[in-house]
Amino acid sequence: MCERFRNYITRLSTTPLSEEQWKQITATMRLKLFRKKQYFLQEGDICKYFGFIVNGAMRQYSVDDKGAEHIIRLALEDWWVGDRESWTMLTPSIYNIDAWENTEVLLITKADLVLLSRAIPAFDEMVRAIVENYTIAIQKRVNAAISMPADRRYADFACNHPDFLQRFPQHIIASYLGITKETLSRVRKQSLKQS
Amino acid sequence: MCERFRNYITRLSTTPLSEEQWKQITATMRLKLFRKKQYFLQEGDICKYFGFIVNGAMRQYSVDDKGAEHIIRLALEDWWVGDRESWTMLTPSIYNIDAWENTEVLLITKADLVLLSRAIPAFDEMVRAIVENYTIAIQKRVNAAISMPADRRYADFACNHPDFLQRFPQHIIASYLGITKETLSRVRKQSLKQS
DNA sequence: CTGTTTCGTTGATATTTATCAACGGATAAA
DNA sequence: TTTATCCGTTGATAAATATCAACGAAACAG
């Protein structure tokens, strides 16, 4: 059932993971089902868990003064969800995270994460790799946001995350890219003509 | 001379730093002067060092197909410079980093960073704190980029980084915010009227 | 099956932002 | 000093994108 996570660790680390260690991990992390629309984290909450998505889809977003949602992050299988700021500072989160599909998540607390990292080299390596990958990816996203027009941002996104296009509707993708659904619709029509 | 870095470590960590450990750090990291306009990293280079700015100012930017520069990151005293992607993947960087003022930088290689982190708990804590702070800050920047209009982005920036406004000219700030210098000039005029 | 919501599209229009061109002041270099 | 470069501003105009409104199709809930 959680084989997916085991493979994930193996993929992100060089040290092998013993049967014993894997048992410790499964004994520590709890599997929880979030039904469609259920909150993983709600604005004002403190983020006590990070979650590894075993299957399903979630989104992280902020809500502005006019009630409009802005998608900060999308996550599918093998992605993590949680709010780093709230998690590390223990402050109320300004974001919401909810399930877009029914989603199975492996939960871990900060304390347990520290424990497992100390006890299991492969786990520690994985954590470091996650952070590395995340910072690289988000750096690119900032670069795209400040230097590319809407159509190129979409082209980039479609190229790098074709799976997201299959799982999330266009108005969600649009919000993620910082444009309206109407603009995205027009951008897509254009890009079809040219191919 | 590098007292600034010592204070920085102390501030970001809870473990004290012994005289012995500090000596090890200064013996490992090299102080280098970059004169105004000198490259710290040039597009196509592999980023072999991260640098802690002891004094001065640097900028990181990409250059698009039309030759326009897009400021990815600005850095003053107590900030780090380097390209995470190139550094971790050992791939040629797509960014440039150069000195905006004459700048003194403490250099460290990846190997040395690992060594010092293993040997010195305070150093390790500092590295973790940097990564935490960085991910939180850049997350907010993405949020701003996709959910705020130009004037609010500027107001936010001015509020959070008043020191940057003093040290970098407006066209650099504008690029950092993803707008043109003309637009920034108009935004500022508006914001003056209202206060 | 039937009403309801979600989703994507399109058109008309408004707003925001970029582009282009020009200017004056400040600063640095010769 | 003179000359050149950098910097910020402004106006006129163009382009990109948002907003508002309406529609039909599909998916879903009762």
Label the CATH architecture of the domain at 3-120 in chain A: Sandwich
Per DSSP, the total helix count of chain A is: 9
Shape of chain A: globular
Order of helices and strands of chain A: HHEEEEEEHEEHHHHHH
* N-end to C-end Cα span of chain A: 41 Å
Can you say what the CATH homologous superfamily of the domain at 3-120 in chain A is? Jelly Rolls
Protein name (chains A, B): Cyclic nucleotide-binding protein
InterPro entries (chains A, B): cNMP-bd_dom (IPR000595), cNMP-bd_dom_sf (IPR018490), RmlC-like_jellyroll (IPR014710)
Domain Cyclic nucleotide-binding (chains A, B): 33-113
Pfam families (chains A, B): cNMP_binding
List key phrases describing it.
homodimer; 195 residues; alpha+beta; Jelly Rolls; four-stranded antiparallel β-sheet; 52% helix; globular; DNA-binding; Cyclic nucleotide-binding protein (chains A, B)
Task: Annotate the secondary structure layout.
Two copies of one chain form a homodimer.
Chain A: H1 3-12, H2 19-28, E1 30-34, E2 39-41, E3 49-55, E4 58-63, E5 69-75, E6 80-81, H3 84-89, E7 96-99, E8 103-109, H4 110-119, H5 121-147, H6 150-160, H7 162-167, H8 170-177, H9 181-193
Antiparallel strand pairs in A: 1-8, 2-7, 3-6, 3-8, 4-5, 4-7
Helix pairs in contact in A: 1-5, 4-5, 6-9, 8-9
Chain A binds a DNA duplex (30 and 30 nucleotides) through helix 9.
Protein name (chains A, B): Cyclic nucleotide-binding protein
Pfam families (chains A, B): cNMP_binding (PF00027)
InterPro entries (chains A, B): cNMP-bd_dom (IPR000595), cNMP-bd_dom_sf (IPR018490), RmlC-like_jellyroll (IPR014710)
